[in-house]
């Protein structure tokens, strides 16, 4: 298993952020983490990336404990950081090099990988940022920054991608291209967090639905099945039941709102 969580809970100043999560993610599996803002999606990704640690419970990566002690070991840390890549929701926190070319080259150089220039050219082309290579990242639009950050992650050949609202700030065409790019990389394990139900099934055949307010896991199963369950989506806060009157007759409909 790429990841295994057992009874994982996390609290911040006594407030539950995640509660009693137990699940595993297999190698090359595609999982989409769904839930409203504040339900703990980003926190869960941070735990999987070793940037946060549970208050209770255990997290394992490829059978080994993933905790502060493990990441203090230089050999484990280097291997883990080379295998697992995390796309932040706010990619401004990831971009700090003087040019886009340097940004994409940074990871491969840090990891001592070969063919850095070829990697930069390949992934700049794949993410449509080749014309931006000489420019400073801070000058770019939100969507351009997102594509540069993705190119920088993929240039290091990770085995696992953790994506936090990967389609946010991308126009519809590039959101579709990103889905296609991920579909063309069946070698990757991908965990995508989003509250955009319109792309959920394309991002992962399996869905983990988090309850509002850190109340735990509401659903773990096929994404298609979840999307056909309006009552569960209402319970999660991702949909609502809208009642109205038309020609003197009462009606009720379920509405889903995708917001990025």
Characteristics of this structure?
six-stranded mixed β-sheet, Rossmann fold, single chain, globular, four-stranded antiparallel β-sheet
How would you describe the overall organization of this protein?
- The protein has 260 residues and is α/β, with parallel strands linked by helices.
- It has a single domain (3-90, 160-256), classed as Rossmann fold, CATH 3.40.50.
- It contains ten helices and twelve strands.
- The strands form three sheets. Strands 6-7-8-3-9-10 form a six-stranded mixed beta sheet, sandwiched between helices.
- A hairpin with a 6-residue loop joins strand 9 and strand 10.
- Helix 4 (100-110) packs across helix 5 (116-126) and helix 4 runs parallel beside helix 6 (142-154).
- The longest helix is centred in the middle third of the chain and has 13 residues, at 142-154.
- The chain is globular, with a radius of gyration of 20 Å.
- The model has no long low-confidence stretch (mean pLDDT 92).
Number of helices: 10
Rg for CA atoms = 20 Å
Q: Low-confidence runs (pLDDT<50, min 5 residues)?
A: none
General form? globular
**SSE series:** EEEHEEHHEHHHEHEHEEHHEE
* Average pLDDT metric: 92
Spatially, the strands of the biggest sheet line up as: 6-7-8-3-9-10
Report the β-strand fraction as a percent range: 25-35%
Number of strands: 12
Predict the CATH topology.
Answer: Rossmann fold
Distance linking N and C termini: 31 Å
The first-level CATH class is given as Alpha Beta
- Computed structural class: alpha/beta
Number of domains: 1
């Amino acid at each position: 298993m790429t990841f295994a969580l057992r009874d994982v809970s996390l609290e911040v100043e006594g407030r539950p952020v995640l509660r009693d999560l137990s699940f595993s993610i297999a190698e090359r599996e595609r999982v989409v983490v769904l839930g409203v803002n504040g339900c703990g999606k980003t926190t869960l990704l941070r735990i999987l990336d070793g940037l946060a640690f549970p208050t209770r419970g255990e997290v394992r990566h490829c059978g080994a404990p993933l905790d502060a002690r493990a990441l203090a070991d230089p050999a484990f840390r280097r291997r883990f950081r080379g295998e697992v890549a995390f796309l932040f929701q706010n990619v401004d926190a990831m971009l700090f090099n003087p040019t886009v070319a340097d940004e994409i080259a940074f990871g491969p150089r840090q990891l001592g990988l070969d063919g850095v220039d070829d990697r930069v050219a390949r992934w700049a082309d794949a993410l449509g940022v080749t014309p931006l290579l000489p420019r400073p990242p801070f000058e770019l639009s939100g969507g351009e920054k997102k594509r540069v950050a993705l190119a920088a992650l993929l240039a290091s050949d990770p085995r696992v991608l953790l994506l936090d609202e990967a389609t946010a700030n991308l126009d519809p065409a590039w959101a579709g291209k990103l889905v296609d790019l991920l579909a063309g990389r069946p070698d990757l394990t991908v965990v995508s967090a989003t509250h955009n139900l319109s792309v959920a099934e394309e991002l992962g055949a399996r869905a983990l639905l988090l309850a509002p307010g850190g109340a735990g896991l509401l659903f773990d199963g096929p994404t298609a099945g979840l999307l056909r369950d309006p009552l569960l989506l209402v319970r999660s806060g991702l949909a609502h039941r809208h009642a109205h009157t038309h020609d003197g007759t009462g009606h009720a409909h379920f509405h889903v709102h995708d917001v990025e």
